Amino acid sequence: MLLTLVAGHALCDYPLQGDFLAKAKNRNAPIPGVPWYQALGAHAVIHGGMVALVTRSPLLGLVETVIHAAIDDAKCRGKLSYNQDQAIHLACKLAWALIARRPDLPSPKGDAQ
Length: 113
Fold this sequence. Notes:
It is a single chain. By secondary structure, the chain is mostly helical. The protein has one domain. It is built from five helices and no strands. Helix 1 packs antiparallel against helix 3 and helix 1 runs antiparallel to helix 5. The longest helix has 20 residues. It is elongated. 28% of the residues are buried.
């Protein structure tokens, strides 16, 4: 699962983000006419959707969405370097993989996994 989460992160952070979202999500240098928070939200939701699909946990997908947006916004504001940003994202993927493997985590059908 961890390998799939990391591969999903690479897919979502590079080809699925693209130049448009990479630029538009930055509140300090947004694309004119494009609300930065919509672009950041769209990018974060792409990541959250990937986590939900891989872990089969909508809750982990939601948590990923919120945390991913906060991390990327901090990077865009100069609070984190690119490498710090990526390291935190990968640490989150490790956390999701560990949490998703817990036998007491409810599955989408409500059964124990």
